[in-house]
Predict the structure of Major facilitator superfamily (MFS) profile domain-containing protein.
Amino acid sequence: MQIDRFGHFKIWHAAGSLLVAISFSSVFGGCLPCTILHSNSLTLETLSYSMFAAIFNIGWAATQVSHMAMVNYITLNSTSRVALTSSRNAFSMVANLALYAIALVVFGVSKADTKENTESQYRWIAYSCITVGCCFVVVFLMGTKEPRLRITLRETNRARIPWAYWFRKILYYQVAMVYLLTRLVLNVSQAYLAFFVIDDLQMAQSAKALVSERRISVDHRTCLNQCFHFQIPAIIYICSFVVSVMLQ
């Protein structure tokens, strides 16, 4: 609602993307206030990560809402809107698959012998994703024309709907609950997927440290561990991509 009233979609999208890039790089880049103040306080570190996590959520919301709201202004045809939303969801799955491809490259190039090396791996993954994402944001902002609201004669005579109007509609709460439960299942499943693969399926990368077996056996097991570790999320996102295209 605030995006419709104040500013243009591309301005909100650019501002949100900037906040996401800054906060995401700060979370994976270490405690920035701790480095500036030369302090190792756990309280300062907790406040720092909490602050950047909050900034990330604000930027993510501004980017997502402005991008989704553009669909309603690009076309008035309901079928075209569904197709655009489906394409948006499909390419979100493509972006997730690209993330795992980057992770495979980073894990294949660098070794995680120590805690510092492991942190460096995920730091490189985060920085690579931020760089690629910023490039596509620039392409989107430069290559997309700002849509304008098309007002018909019927809409000109219609009074502006107050913001409290939607809170009296049952459909508002139905949509909110469906979205809430869907995001909850998605986030929880993604959070526990890594633990399922590593703990339950016993596909930990600690097989690299085994020295009692032959080197070729260790390398083969490590390769299988890494492949299976990324095959399960890849299958999930590929299926999501196919379903998003089919559900137009």
